[in-house]
Amino acid sequence: MFALRSHAIVRRRTQARCFWAEFYQHLTPATNQFLDLAIALPFPPSFPPYASTILLGTVLLRLAFLPTVLWVSLQETHRRHSIHVLPESSQGC
């Protein structure tokens, strides 16, 4: 019984290791491109290029998703303040 359970645990750990290894393998080119971008951007020498690229990327992503966020919050506000009127039933009570 113990041998079967330990085999299942080892198999799950191996599958998890394979998943993370494959994940990192696909993530490595993206990180290399990000580092190349950090070096290529013309920041002043007083700014650290990697940290500045992270900040710039964060600001650009937030600006890119701002219309969607505003639309969702407007829809939520409208839904919260709208009055739902139920139609009268044709059967009298």
What's the layout of helices and strands?
Layout: H1 2-40, H2 49-81
Helix pairs in contact: 1-2
H/E order of the elements?
HH
Alpha carbon gap, first and last residue = 67 Å
| Uncertain runs | none
Total beta-strand segments: 0
Helix content: over 70%
User: What is the residue-mean pLDDT, rounded to a whole number?
Assistant: 80
Strand content: under 5%
Q: Which class best fits the helix and strand makeup? A: mainly alpha
Number of H/I helices: 2
| Radius of gyration computed on alpha carbons | 27 Å
Largest sheet data: none
Question: In one word, what is the shape?
Answer: flat
Outline the structure in words.
The protein is an all-alpha fold. Among the domains are: about 1-30; about 40-70, no CATH class. The protein is built from two helices and no strands. The chain has helices at about 1-40, 50-80. Helix 1 packs across helix 2. The longest helix is centred in the first third of the chain and has 39 residues, at about 1-40. The protein starts with a helix and ends in a 12-residue tail after the last helix.
Give a brief description.
The protein has helices at 2-40, 49-81.
Keyword list:
single chain, 93 residues, mainly alpha, flat
